Every structure is written in C-alpha cells, then in structure tokens.
C-alpha cells in the first residue's frame, strides 16, 4: 500500500484513509493508494469500502502542482470510474473541503455522508479548467442541471446543509469522519442498500444551453472556462451514453488545460499564497496587537478603522476636531451598515462595535496605550512629519507606527521619530474595508518583527499582503503612474479616452483608466501633476493639460457628476462626456500634434508593455522581491484580469523578446518614456523569464 492512503479492515468494511497533508490533494501517490485499496478490498472479500481523509479535510482536489507535467497513471477520471464500478458498496465520509477532484471521488462513491461544517464544490473554473473526472457528468445527474450549472460555472463552495438539499450528499451527521462513515456503511450493509452508481443514472433534462453559454461568457469578462464548462454539462444531457459524455468532458478539459488562461489562473493561485513567504520573516515573531489607533478619519482612515473593527480589534480614532471625529464615526457607521446588509455581521455585533469597540479622540494622549497606529491624514509630508513626531512623544515603547501614505517617502517620515525601527508603511486600497490588497512598505530601518507584525495584521484583516520597498508610489501606484501616462500619450496622439477604456475592458480589466480616474476623483491626479510640475518636469517628458481643464471647471469625476464621463443620478456607470474631446483637440492643436488612428490591439499592447517595463524596473530595483509580488498587487489592487495571471505572467506568456523589441521600436519616437528596464534586457539576453526569477526565489 502507498503511505498516502492507509488501509484498515473493520469487519466487512475496508477503510481507506487518505494521508497527504495539508489538504489531501489527489497526487499520484494518493491515486495509486486508492486504486490499490479498492482492489485489495475486493480481493479480500470485504463488502463495503469507506473513503475518508485524515487531518483537516477530505480531498481538496487534484494536485494542482502536477498540472502541465506529464500525467502519471492512474489518471483521476479512470480511477473515479473504477471506484464507481466496484461491486462493493463504496461510501465517502466528507469533512473540511471536498473540492474539485475531491468531490468527483465522492460522486463516484455510491453513498456520501458529511459533517455539518463540510463544504463541497467544483471550483475548477477558477483555475481555468473544468471538472475533468466526471464532475460535469455526475453532478447534474444527482443535483439537476440548474444546480450543477450554478456550482460548476461559479465554483462556489456549498455548505453541507445545502448540499444535502441539492442531493449532492445523502446524509449530514456530526462527529469524526471515520466514525460516522463506518456507522453509515454498516447501516447501509445492514439494510441491504443497493450499490448506487451515479454514472448509471438516467441523463438529466436539458435546458437552453446556448442561452446559458452566452450569459456565462458575458459575465466572465473574457474568461473562457465557465462557458466551456457549460458545454460539458450539455454533454451530460445530450451525449448518447455516459461514456460519451465523459469523452466530451475530457476533450474540453484538455483544451482548457492547454490554454494561457489556465496558466494565468494557476499562477495567480500559487502567487497569492507565496507573497507572505519571506525569508526575512522566518522565525521572527510579530509583536502582539490588541488595540490599534487610526489617525485621520477621512475616506481611508474610516475604511481602515472599519476593517479593524470587523476583525475584532478595538480602535481609537484621532481626528483634528470633535466635528471631524463625529463625521468619521458616521462614515464608519455607514460602512458597518453595509456589512450588516450583506450579512457579514449581525445587528448585535454591529451595535456592540459602535458602542464599545470604537473610541473617538482629538488628543494624542488617547494613543498612549495602543499597540499599533495607522496614520491616514492628508498626503502632505509636513503634516505627516508632525503627526509622527507627536506619536514618538506619546506612544509606548515597541508600538508599531504605520503610515498609509500613497506615494511619500517612508524613510523621511520615519526620520521624524527617534524610533525609525518601529515605522512602516501599511498601504491600504480604497475602500479599505473591502479591497483585499495591503502593501507592506519596508523602510531602511524597519525592524523584522515590525514587518512580521504588518503581515500578521494583514492576515487578521483577511488581506493579501505584499512586501514593497520605498520609492515614489511603491509597487502599485508607481506602475500605475507609468501606464496611466502611456494612456495620456495615446490620447494626445489620437486615441480617445473612451476607445482606450473600451479596449482595456475588452482585454479583461474591471475598468479602463479614465473611468478609474473618475471613480477615484480627478483632483487626485491633478494634485500629483501639479506637485510634479512644481518639482520640475524633465524637459523630455511629455505633458498634457486637457484633464487639468476638466478640474479647473470643477469636474472631478463621479463625485461631481461629471469627468471623462457624465453620471446621471440613479444610473450605473456614465456616458462619454463630449466636452472632453474638445479639450483634447485643443491640447493637441496647442502642441502641434496631428492625431492618428489607433487600433484596439495597439492600445492594449502599448498600455501593457509600459506596465511590464515599469514592473521590471520595480523588480530590478528590489522594490518588489519577485515578479509574482507585482502580479498579486495588480490583480488585487488594480482590477487586472485574474485569468491573465498579472502583468509579468502575461509578459512571459507573450514572450519577453517581442516586448523588448516593441520598447526599442517605440523609443525611436519617445526615448524618454520608452527606456527599457535593465532587468528585461538581462532576461532577454539570457533567454530567461520572470517565472524563472520566481523559482530562483523559492
Ligand atoms: N493541489 C496542490 N496543493 C494545494 C491544493 C491542491 N489542490 N490545494 C491547496 N494546496 C496547497 C496550497 O498551495 C498551500 O500550500 P503552501 O502551504 O505550500 O502554501 C496548502 O495546500 C494549504 O492551502 P491554503 O493555504 O489555501 O489553505 P486554506 O485552508 O486557506 O484553504 C483550500 C484550503 C480551501 C482547500 C484551498 O487551498 C483551495 O481552495 N485549494 C484549491 C482547491 C481546488 O481548486 N481544487 C480543485 C483542483 S482542480 C481539480 O480537482 C481537477 C479535477 O477536476 C480533475
Ligand atoms: P481624506 O482627505 O479623505 O482624509 C484625511 C483626514 O485626515 C481628514 O478627515 C482630516 O480631517 C484628517 N486629518 C488631517 N490632518 C490631521 C491631523 N494632523 N490629525 C488628525 N487628523 C487629521 O484623505 P484620504 O483619501 O483618506 O487619504 C488619507 C491618506 O491615505 C493619504 O496619505 C492618502 O494618500 C492615502 N491613501 C488614499 C487612498 C485613496 O484612494 N483615497 C488610497 C490609499 C492611500
């Protein structure tokens, strides 16, 4: 027997216990062990087989690390068929998460029992594939086509009580999976229950699959796997036999397995788990954090306070005046009301948070006992320095002092204190209680346990935390500044903001850059442009004034009802603001530019290449530790399409030499903006990829 599956005989029942921590993924050893276990049980004359998982879960799916490598026998679909075909009564006992191939093994068992906390699901589409071991054929036979389509196209995790109602499992019972499984198998044997193979059940009734396909394709914003999965479910209804349905599932599965989208999504899966794995944190204990302070209760401060309160951390919020403090409390209350409405907290929790967990203050003494403070005051270095000097005077020794600055130099802020080792950047994204990304900005003198404390706080707030170094804009905003500038150049040269936004949403971005500016507020970019002009622009840098004109007229985007788009009350989204085209035309005329046409492909290529080039600089300078850190920042903070894996995964899939060729070609027209990143040149010269750098860092 394989060590990954333990065999035990209890009376008439052969027990197969998977033991492949941490999640009992169905790697080759587990598959071999299950096959050997079924064969041995049959040879030994057992009457029933119980399959369960040791540790924290039943099988959480196929072993994703095997994807893209030569497959090793037995393959999962064949194994599932073999389990189902067994003349013995096969029972699966589920706990933890029975996902993907895990649920497929359960569905090829003849009966399924689960503990109440178990969850089941077929999340394959989120990895760019579809259930490939009979899930698309067996699930519709037990749950009906509608429920199967919902589970398979969304990949959602379904709780045991709902799975019972849907017919996915047969019984829910509290207890140890081995014990409840044994009792259930014995009960079935005693009652003479028949062997019940889902594959032998009649084909389910069809629905209008073409309509479902179109709707799912549209919802996926270019992601293919959910739509392709619809066709596999269709085969469950329409194929002449179960075996032919399985063959169709296999064919579609293999198509997706070969796709770039599969590569992108699996990269994203492992990248988001790798970001927190840092050599500098090995063996470093975070400092305990029991209560936190937040300074400034505007958009960000209120959002950060909300995130902390929702995670059970008491917050002391400091504002400049009583009125401002109460306005901040109102903002937090609004955020909490949203959480209540979405069922994230109960009314009781909501009330308790507001009455007991949030303290308002206007004097720094209120922060003397907190373990960690996050500053979210105006983006102004002098104001930040004053705040940190005051924190230095009142905070207890060892308190972590964090800034939420978007762009400013965290070293300079740290230098305003006598304890720079305790100072760090914790850069949240707006709205801070919703957005999952947290950049943890490590300054020159930040102590390792302060970095560890940042990551521990991120984990507690359920954020995806990424380490960044200090530079103007850290990882995300620095790269954003570059690709946003690229978009401005294309506008000057002839593209319209509306064409650019459309080309990029067609590419898969949640929003185009101009719609994003409207959402964030055009005043933010205006302030940055004014600051940069005041600092003195490089004479070779191209500048534009059309967006300033919008701001000068009081149009700041969504909050004023007008920006690049016009927003009508009560309507979602906006319609293009025609005045913008006149402003752009005037800007072009003033700069002597004759506009040319851009194809959507060229727009996407220039935008993406500018993003990749800046990202390569960010990695090359050590601002991001690995290419995957950049990818996760763009995925979680900037609406980058997950199925493309992030900008640097996209670059690898496109081919780095072609990207460098484009940069060199475009530098002939603007050699200031299009300066190739030295890291990109090095990788191309060495014939290596960004993913090779990720592997080097493992
Ligand atoms: N294969 C390989 N490794 C896996 C894995 C899998 N299916 N699922 C999780 N892991 C690894 C993670 O990478 C992580 O490794 P690390 O500790 O080295 O970083 C470790 O297991 C623990 O995972 P998490 O940190 O994610 O643990 P959580 O407790 O937060 O979540 C989980 C557990 C809900 C099971 C989550 O890991 C998950 O969603 N896993 C993927 C499930 C999935 O997509 N299954 C379908 C696979 S595709 C398939 O089955 C194809 C089939 O149809 C043919
Ligand atoms: P905001 O203008 O909405 O809020 C700032 C708040 O700070 C105001 O309520 C103000 O009264 C208060 N304040 C100012 N000086 C203070 C002081 N000395 N003591 C106490 N309170 C003081 O600004 P916003 O958008 O919340 O930004 C705050 C910080 O977060 C800035 O550094 C910004 O760059 C950063 N940030 C902003 C993001 C955004 O999308 N708005 C995203 C990420 C970071």
Automatic annotation (TrEMBL):
For biological process, the GO terms are: fatty acid beta-oxidation
Instruction: Show where the 3-hydroxyacyl-CoA dehydrogenase NAD binding domain sits.
Output: 291-468
Q: Where is the 3-hydroxyacyl-CoA dehydrogenase C-terminal domain?
A: 473-567, 603-688
What Gene Ontology terms describe what this protein does at the molecular function level?
(3S)-3-hydroxyacyl-CoA dehydrogenase (NAD+) activity; enoyl-CoA hydratase activity; isomerase activity; NAD+ binding
Keywords (alphabetical) are: Fatty acid metabolism, Isomerase, Lipid degradation, Lipid metabolism, Lyase, Multifunctional enzyme, NAD, Oxidoreductase, Peroxisome
Q: Name one Pfam family in it.
A: ECH_1
Where in the cell is the protein located? Peroxisome
Keyword Transferase on this protein?
no
Principal place of residence: other
Which protein family is it in? Belongs to the enoyl-CoA hydratase/isomerase family.
Kindly give the PANTHER family that the UniProt entry links to this protein: 3-HYDROXYACYL-COA DEHYROGENASE
Name under which the protein is recorded: 3-hydroxyacyl-CoA dehydrogenase
Lineage at the top is: Bacteria, Pseudomonadati, Pseudomonadota, Alphaproteobacteria, Rhodobacterales
């Amino acid at each position: 027997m394989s060590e990954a599956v333990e065999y035990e005989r209890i009376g008439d029942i052969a027990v197969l216990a998977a033991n492949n921590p941490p999640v009992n993924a169905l790697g080759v050893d587990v598959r071999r062990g299950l096959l050997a276990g079924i064969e041995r049980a049959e040879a030994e004359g057992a009457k029933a087989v119980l399959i369960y998982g040791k540790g924290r879960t039943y099988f959480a799916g196929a072993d994703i690390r095997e994807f893209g490598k030569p497959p090793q026998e037995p393959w999962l679909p064949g194994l599932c068929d073999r389990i189902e075909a067994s003349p013995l009564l096969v029972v699966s006992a589920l706990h933890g998460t029975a996902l993907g191939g895990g649920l497929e093994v359960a569905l090829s068992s003849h009966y399924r029992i689960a503990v109440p906390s178990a969850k089941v699901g077929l999340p394959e589409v989120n990895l760019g594939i579809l259930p490939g071991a009979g899930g698309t054929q067996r699930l519709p036979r037990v749950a009906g086509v509608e429920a199967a389509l919902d589970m398979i196209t969304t990949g959602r995790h379904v709780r045991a009580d709902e799975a019972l109602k849907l017919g996915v499992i047969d019984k829910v019972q509290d207890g140890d999976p081995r014990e409840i499984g044994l009792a259930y198998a014995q009960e079935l044997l005693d009652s003479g229950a028949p062997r019940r193979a889902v594959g032998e059940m009649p084909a389910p009734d069809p629905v209008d699959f073409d309509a479902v396909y179109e709707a799912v394709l549209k919802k996926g914003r270019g992601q293919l796997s959910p739509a392709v999965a619809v066709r596999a479910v269709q085969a469950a209804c329409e194929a002449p036999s179960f075996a032919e349905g399985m063959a169709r599932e296999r064919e579609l599965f293999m198509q997706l397995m070969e796709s770039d989208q599969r590569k992108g999504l699996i990269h994203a899966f492992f990248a988001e788990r790798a970001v927190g794995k840092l050599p500098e944190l090995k063996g470093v204990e975070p400092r305990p954090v029991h209560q936190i302070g937040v300074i400034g209760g505007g958009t960000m401060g209120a959002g950060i306070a909300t995130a902390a309160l929702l995670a059970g951390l008491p917050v002391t919020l400091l504002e400049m005046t009583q009125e401002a403090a109460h306005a901040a409390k109102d903002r937090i209350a609004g955020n909490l009301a949203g959480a209540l409405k979405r069922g994230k907290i109960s009314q009781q929790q909501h009330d308790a948070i507001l009455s007991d967990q949030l303290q308002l203050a206007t004097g720094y003494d209120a922060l003397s006992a907190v373990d960690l403070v996050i500053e979210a005051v105006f983006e102004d270095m002098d104001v930040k320095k004053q705040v940190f000097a005051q924190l230095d005077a009142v905070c207890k020794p060892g308190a972590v002092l964090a800034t939420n600055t978007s762009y400013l130099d965290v070293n300079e802020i740290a230098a305003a204190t006598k304890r720079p080792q305790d100072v760090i950047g914790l850069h949240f994204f707006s709205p801070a209680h919703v957005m999952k990304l947290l950049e943890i900005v490590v300054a020159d003198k930040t102590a390792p346990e302060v970095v560890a404390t940042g990551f521990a706080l991120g984990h507690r707030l359920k954020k995806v935390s990424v380490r960044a170094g200090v530079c103007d804009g850290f990882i995300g905003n620095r790269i954003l500044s570059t690709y946003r500038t690229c978009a401005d150049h294309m506008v000057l040269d002839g593209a319209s903001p509306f064409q650019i936004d459309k080309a990029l949403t067609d590419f898969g971005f949640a929003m185009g850059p101009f719609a994003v500016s409207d959402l964030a507020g055009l005043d933010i970019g205006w302030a940055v442009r004014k600051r940069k002009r005041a600092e003195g622009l490089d004479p070779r840098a191209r500048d534009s004034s059309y967006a300033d004109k919008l701001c000068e007229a009081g149009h700041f985007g969504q909050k004023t009802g007008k920006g690049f788009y016009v927003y009508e009350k009560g309507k979602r989204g906006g319609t293009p603001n025609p005045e913008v085209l006149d402003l752009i035309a005037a800007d072009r005329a003033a700069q002597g530019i004759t506009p040319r046409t851009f194809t959507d492909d060229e727009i996407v290529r220039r935008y993406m290449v500018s993003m990749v080039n800046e990202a390569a600089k960010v990695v090359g300078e050590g601002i991001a530790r690995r290419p995957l850190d950049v990818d996760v920042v763009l995925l979680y903070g900037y609406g980058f399409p997950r199925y493309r894996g992030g900008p640097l995964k996209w670059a690898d899939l496109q081919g780095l030499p072609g990207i460098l060729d484009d940069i060199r070609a475009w530098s002939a027209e603007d050699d200031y903006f299009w300066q190739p990143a030295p890291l990109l040149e090095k990788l191309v010269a060495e014939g290596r990829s960004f993913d090779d750098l990720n592997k080097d860092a493992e």
